[in-house]
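Project standup — Tuesday

K.O.: blocked on the structure for the chain from last sprint. Re-posting the sequence here as requested.
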Amino acid sequence: MLWVGSYAKTDPAFIGIPFFYWYQMAWVLISTVLTMIAYTLWQRDQRARSAAKGGASE
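H.V.: unblocked you, prediction finished:
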């Protein structure tokens, strides 16, 4: 996203929306999905650690 010259253009348009706008919105959606995946993996790891810690003390 720091290399503005790579996306500061109007073509190719997507359903009438210039490239600059739909490219930015695509990255918002992609980063949301990646954040959700990371959070789910983190939760899974925390549950596994909690289960291992609880199982070891019993």
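K.O.: great, moving the ticket to review. Helices lie at 19-57. The mean pLDDT is 87.
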